[in-house]
Amino acid sequence: MIEAKPSLSKLAPLALLALTLAGCSLLAPPGAAPPSLFTLAPGLESVAPRDLAAQTIEIAPPGARPGFEGSRMAYVTRPYEIQFFARHQWVEPPARMLAPLLGEALERDGRFRAAQSGESVSSALRLETEIVALQQEFTAHPSQVRFALRARLLAGLEHRILATAAFEAVEPSPSEDPYGGVIAANRAVARVLDEVAKWCAESGIGRTRGSSTSDRDP
C-alpha cells in the first residue's frame, strides 16, 4: 500500500509558522533592566582631632515616616500625592544610610565621640531622628529636593529629653531627572547634618545634668 505524503502546499504554512515562532523566541526582548542605584554620600569636611573631653553620643537607628521608609525614590507633582520613580532607587533605605552620616557630622569638630546603637559604650547623650520627607518636587521649576528631619536629644543614662528640633533643607535640582534629584538630595542632607551637629553641641554639651527642655523649628 502506498502511503500518501503531504503536499508541499500543505507543508509550506507549517514551516512558515515554525520559523515565525523561532524568530519570536530569538528576537524577544530581554528581561527588565535592573534599576539604577544611588547613595547618600554628602561631602563632609575632614574630622578635627578629638577633644580629650569629648562626650559620647549614641546614635539611635533613624526612623522614617510612611512613604519614605523604603528604598524607592519619591517625587511629587502635586501636593499630598507621593509617587515613586520606576527604575531609580536608593541603594539602601535613606534612614539606614543616615546613621553613619550623623556619626561623621557629630565627630567633625572633635567635641563628640559618636557610637552607633548597640555598641558596648556608656553614652552621656542619645540622638533619635526620623526622616519626615525626602522627595523631589516637580511643583517648582527647576525642580527641588526637600529633606526634613525631626530630632530628639536625650540624656543617655536617664533617657530624659533635653531638646527636640525640626530641620529642613530645600535644594534646587541641576537637572529635571532622578539623577539631578540625587545631587540635590545630597546637598540638602549635608546642610541638615551640619545643623544637627551644631544643635547637638548647643543643646547637649554640659547639660546632661540639667532639667530644661528646648524646642527648635526650622
Describe this structure in words.
The protein has helices spanning 8-27, 94-107, 178-204, and strands at residues 36-38, 55-59, 63-64, 72-76, 83-90, 112-116, 125-137, 144-155, 160-172, 214-216. With 218 residues, it is an alpha/beta fold. The chain has a single domain (55-207), classed as 3-Layer(aba) Sandwich (Rossmann fold), CATH 3.40.50.10610. Strands 1, 2, 3, 4, 5, 6, 7, 8, 9 and 10 form a 10-stranded mixed β-sheet that branches. Strand 8 (144-155) and strand 9 (160-172) form a beta hairpin. Helix 2 (94-107) crosses helix 3 (178-204).
Helix content: 25-40%
Oligomer: single chain
Strand content: 25-35%
Helix-strand topology string: HEEEEEHEEEEHE
Count of strand segments: 10
Low-confidence blocks of residues: 1-6, 8-29, 209-213
Report the major sheet: 10 strands, mixed
State the fourth-level CATH superfamily.
Answer: ABC-type transport auxiliary lipoprotein component
Radius of gyration: 28 Å
By secondary-structure content and strand pairing, the structural class works out as: alpha/beta
Count structural domains: 1
Report how far the terminal alpha carbons are from each other: 98 Å
* CATH topology call: Rossmann fold
Instruction: Name the overall outline.
Output: elongated
For the record, the CATH class is Alpha Beta
Number of helices: 3
Mean pLDDT: 82
CATH architecture descriptor? 3-Layer(aba) Sandwich
